[in-house]
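ingest -> validate -> predict -> emit
validate: passed (alphabet ok, no gaps, 234 aa)
predict: started
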Amino acid sequence: MTGARPVVAVPGLGLSAEIPQRLFRALPTAGPTTVVELPGFGLPAPRGLAIGLAAQVDRLLDALRGRGPGDPVVLVGHSASCQLVAEVAAREPERVAGLVLVGPTTDPRGWTWPGLATRWVRTAAHERPGQIPRLVHDYRNTGPVAMARTLDAFRRCRIEDSLGSVRCPVLVLRGLHDRIAPADWVAALARLPRDGSAVTVAAGGHMVLSTHPRLVAAEVSAFLARRVGVSEGR
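emit:
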């Protein structure tokens, strides 16, 4: 028998599992879905805990190995977690059948703290105010110090280095008004892997996964059907 590929998502910086779950609820054609929260990405990060790319990659790989033997998964990253899932796909390609990057960071033209702040302000004007209670809840749970430490580590990571080694199909997606992941940056990233495509959905900003999950789900569904295919049933 055949079936849809399992999908594993890592929330964006400071965000909880609820945000990628919104995508999963709008993605009925996906296989089994899992959200993996990590320190700084949905979980607190105590002082002294390693939160750099290498440590986070090891944690995500441990979670994937914990699933036991099975078919490769589709990995979904959002914002800063895009660097993480891309590095996992580059390091252990046999575990990853496809990669979805939503609002990837960090464009080298805006990686500094002032650059990131400017882009965030320009994007925030297009975000929906209704999501503020959810963001406040998630950011408080992760903690501002943990978020700052994680962002400081991940803003320096070059996702380009990972994507150049990725063998699986890759979808790079952004919201129409996302200034953190501008269209030319997303298009450039999609040209790096062997099989990449770039999409700008018709609305939303950097939090498009939260505010417009159905738009994102439509593109992800098409990507899964056309580029990733089915898995062998176990």
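The first helix runs from residue 18 to 25.
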